[in-house]
């Protein structure tokens, strides 16, 4: 299995630009998560989906952030317009609730720098 | 008070040492507990789940004390490859994970 795939791995953009991060979860998984990690705030859950439906977006920092999951194998996290304080590593994770296992499998992350 | 708090690091220990990490959580209704490991500039990976009765996986032992809202991780006979950041994770319900800030461990030769 290829694991969770994220693209791009690195993104450098200027303030005010739109940024789109992409994620392909592990095939067959029914949950997908977007996290953000910074030195100051640690790892924070932004939003998660179950069967492509957003379940909890209370972690999304503000209206500049949006996430979609048009099908079971693809999700995007969009920031528009981007700001320097959005610089962070963004992780996507997926899981399958089966047999009581709650393990979340993380992708390698996208390192975003907004200048 | 933060939802999940951990020992501040870093912990620098010699190979073969035993090291213990502590974690406290604020919501007594929390249902699930885990330890994740994160290597430098890598993604977090599940180390072990934490069960009420305590559980062991090789050199690693996890304990949960619901009354004190406290979780621990014990690493015996530490190896150089154990050097990483250890993240305590608490879920109030389902998949809504709250990660602690992490404790960094360096095992020295």
Number of helices of chain B: 0
Q: Helix- and strand-based class of chain A?
A: mainly beta
Radius of gyration of chain A: 14 Å
Overall mean pLDDT of chain B stands at: 93
Instruction: Measure the end-to-end span of chain A.
Output: 36 Å
Low-pLDDT segments, ≥5 res of chain B: none
Q: What attributes characterize this protein structure?
A:
heterodimer, A: 115 residues, mainly beta, 7-stranded mixed β-sheet, 4-stranded antiparallel β-sheet, B: 109 residues, 6-stranded mixed β-sheet, 5-stranded antiparallel β-sheet, 54% strand, globular
Quick overview:
The complex is a heterodimer of chains A (115) and B (109). By secondary structure, chain A is mainly β.
Fold and architecture overview:
The complex is a heterodimer of chains A (115) and B (109). By secondary structure, chain A is mostly beta strands. Chain A is built from no helices and eleven strands. Chain A has strands at 5-7, 10-13, 19-24, 31-38, 42-50, 53-56, 65-71, 74-79, 88-95, 105-106, 110-114. In chain A, strands 2, 4, 5, 6, 9, 10 and 11 form a seven-stranded mixed sheet that branches. The mean pLDDT of chain A is 94. Chain B contains no helices and eleven strands. In chain B, strands 2, 4, 5, 9, 10 and 11 form a six-stranded mixed sheet that branches. A five-stranded antiparallel sheet of chain B has the order 1-3-8-7-6, with no helix packed on it. In chain B, a hairpin with a 2-residue loop joins strand 6 (55-57) and strand 7. The model of chain B has no long low-confidence stretch (mean pLDDT 93).
Strands, helices and their partners?
The complex is a heterodimer of chains A (115) and B (109).
Chain A: E1 5-7, E2 10-13, E3 19-24, E4 31-38, E5 42-50, E6 53-56, E7 65-71, E8 74-79, E9 88-95, E10 105-106, E11 110-114
Parallel strand pairs in A: 2-11
Antiparallel strand pairs in A: 1-3, 3-8, 4-5, 4-9, 5-6, 7-8, 9-10, 9-11
Chain B: E1 4-6, E2 11-14, E3 19-25, E4 32-38, E5 44-49, E6 55-57, E7 60-65, E8 70-75, E9 84-91, E10 97-99, E11 103-108
Parallel strand pairs in B: 2-11
Antiparallel strand pairs in B: 1-3, 3-8, 4-5, 4-9, 6-7, 7-8, 9-10, 9-11
């Amino acid at each position: 299995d290829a694991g969770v795939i994220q693209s791009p791995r690195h993104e450098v953009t200027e303030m005010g630009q739109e940024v789109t991060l992409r994620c392909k979860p592990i095939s067959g998984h029914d949950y997908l998560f977007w996290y953000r990690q910074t030195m100051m705030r640690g790892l924070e859950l932004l939003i998660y989906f179950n069967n492509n439906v957003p379940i909890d977006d209370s972690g999304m920092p503000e209206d500049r952030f949006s996430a979609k999951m048009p099908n079971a194998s693809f999700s995007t996290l969009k920031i528009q317009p981007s700001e320097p304080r959005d610089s962070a590593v963004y992780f996507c994770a997926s899981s399958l609730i089966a047999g009581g296992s709650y393990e979340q499998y993380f992708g390698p992350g996208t390192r975003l720098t907004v200048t | 008070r933060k939802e999940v708090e951990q020992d501040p690091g870093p912990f620098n220990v010699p190979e073969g040492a035993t090291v213990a990490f502590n974690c406290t959580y604020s919501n007594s209704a929390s249902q699930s507990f885990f330890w994740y490991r994160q290597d430098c500039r890598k993604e977090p990976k599940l180390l072990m789940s934490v069960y009420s009765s305590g559980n062991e996986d090789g050199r690693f032992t996890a304990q949960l004390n619901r009354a004190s809202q406290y979780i621990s991780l014990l690493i015996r006979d530490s190896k150089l490859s154990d050097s990483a950041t250890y993240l305590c994770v608490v879920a109030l319900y389902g998949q809504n994970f709250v990660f602690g800030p992490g404790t960094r461990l360096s095992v020295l030769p």
